[in-house]
């Protein structure tokens, strides 16, 4: 019975923390998360040593959500459309979660779950880019890591007015799509990031 309660409490904490981080960013307090979950503050620390560890698990879940979308799209008949849909899914995840970009910048890359998920995301993005390039749908000088880093661009561009203009990120994502197509290609001033730079 105790084990069942522990599993239930962990799920309640994950759900509450996911909602709080998404709505309010990563500065939300452990007390607020515990209150939303309907458990005591001590219960949080029986499951997670630190708030960073809790955030890392949630951030990893978000990355895996995007990895799953990429894997689903990797066999699509239209590789260009598949890449753009992958980017749309990734941008939408970030647009609805205020903590996503904060977590990407702040979390220690030594967190094993985050590092593994980042590696998997880079791999699936490269598969999608390579297929789109082979189909002539996108310019040939971009990499999967370029795409991963671009995912934040549209959602961050409208962060300050996201409540007043929900969905505005789609406008800027369309502009990014246009810049990825071969006809728009101009020389890029610096090389793409390396895998070591991305994963730390």
From TrEMBL:
Give start and end residues of each DNA-binding region: 29-48
A GO molecular function held by the record: DNA-binding transcription factor activity
- Entries under InterPro entries matching the protein: DNA-bd_HTH_TetR-type_CS, Homeodomain-like_sf, HTH-type_TetR-like_transc_reg, HTH_TetR, Tet_transcr_reg_TetR-rel_C_sf, TetR_SbtR-like_C
The record's Gene3D superfamilies line, in alphabetical order, gives: Tetracycline Repressor, domain 2 (1.10.357.10)
The record, for SUPFAM superfamilies, names: Homeodomain-like, Tetracyclin repressor-like, C-terminal domain
Q: Name one Pfam family in it.
A: TetR_C_43
* Key words, A-Z: DNA-binding, Transcription, Transcription regulation
HTH tetR-type domain segment(s):
7-66
Q: What is this protein called?
A: TetR/AcrR family transcriptional regulator
Q: Which organism is it from?
A: Streptomyces tsukubensis (strain DSM 42081 / NBRC 108919 / NRRL 18488 / 9993)
